[in-house]
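[agent] plan:
  1. take the single chain provided in the ticket
  2. run structure prediction with default settings
  3. attach structure tokens to the ticket
  4. add a short note for the reviewer (M.T.)
[agent] executing step 1
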Amino acid sequence: MRVTALLPALLLISALPAFAQEPIDYVSKLDYFSINMPVEPKVEQTTYPDEYRLDPLPARVYTADQGRNHYKVTVVDYRDVPKMHAARNVKCIHDAGADNPKLTPQQRRDLVGDACQDETVKDIRGAMMWATWNIIERAAKVTHLAHYNIDVIEGHEVHTINPDESRTYAAIHMYENRLYIVETTVPKNAPAANWFQISLRMLDENYKPVRYQYSGLMMYSNGYPKPPLANQGNQGAQGQAAQGR
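[agent] step 2 finished; step 3 output follows
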């Protein structure tokens, strides 16, 4: 009788969905990051629209599902953006006829005007804002928007309610000219899943987690001089968590 009574419970346990498992610490050696995923993610090569209408940029998307929760990391490669802008400017100058060696500098300036400006800095420096805007634009309502950091690497944090009343919790970072967009989308009235974005770590060339230390008011900002590295021997907590947030 006791064995018979246990059978329904055993059947229930065996039927539990896979999302009851502990998250895995996923490492991407292609894009130099690690993050806790509920399961091994699906990885897809894709492209990403550039704000300044260059050719679409190469990107990879990492996705995983846990029940009705959807987890997604998009990594966009901005490393060739300076070359792409330089090529565009050469073509712009040529199309304006300003590459004629017989022209004086003033004549070249008169032909080109402001049409052939190099937008590299604005494109790369604005990448986080561009990604944040893309998330906001598709939302029905923005419930949170803030400056953010993970391991003292600056970013943006945005929470939204979507048209279907699901919620998205996102963090956006730019590191070594790669854009990282981390998103969790959960159904209406479901608990938040902020653990996902907090678990993000950037990796160095040896695939070791990187953490910087605060130096005055300075934190890591892509394209600017780097702050000193923190002692990485016992860095168990990530950026915002380490601040007690």
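[agent] step 4 note for reviewer: Strands lie at 24-28, 33-37, 42-48, 57-66, 69-77, 141-150, 153-161, 167-175, 178-186, 201-202.
[agent] ticket updated
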